């Protein structure tokens, strides 16, 4: 997304550019505001997280995050799941077509890594989202 640093006339327009950049960065943050302070998580860098981290952060998210923030996290995880599934298919197709053994091993490694991330996303969704509906 984003806009160009220059406006339609070709002149620099830093105010609009940096405002949009700031808004886009803010959309990628999860705000947890609790009585004694707040926590801001960079969604793209923190998730999918390990089960241990998910179990630590999930009570805070369920208790102190607004529903819109929780929905933003759920949508991010769903998009990541779709992304990793399509990556796996692409790697599998390339693996079938290649004759080079070293490339096959590398593609198999990439497939395993994507499958690991998919399992992590599934556990994150289970811990963060579904456990909160009890």
What does this molecule look like?
There is one protein chain. This protein is mainly alpha-helical. The protein has five helices and two strands. It has helices at residues 14-27, 43-46, 51-64, 67-97, 101-128, and strands at residues 29-34, 37-42. Strands 1-2 form a two-stranded antiparallel sheet. A hairpin with a 2-residue loop joins strand 1 and strand 2 (37-42). It is flat and about 55 Å long. 13% of the residues are buried. The mean pLDDT is 86. Residues 88-131 form a coiled coil.
| Strand content range | 5-15%
* Total beta strands: 2
Number of helices: 5
Multimerization status: single chain
The main β sheet shows up as: 2 strands, antiparallel
Q: Whole-Å distance between the termini?
A: 37 Å
Structural class designation: mainly alpha
- Cα Rg: 20 Å
Which regions contain 5 or more consecutive residues with pLDDT less than 50? none
Question: If you average the pLDDT, what whole number results?
Answer: 86
Could you say which overall geometry the principal axes of the C-alpha atoms support? Answer: flat
Strand order of the largest sheet: 1-2
**How much helical structure, as a percent, in the residues?**
55-70%
What order do the SSEs take from the amino end to the carboxyl end, as H and E? HEEHHHH
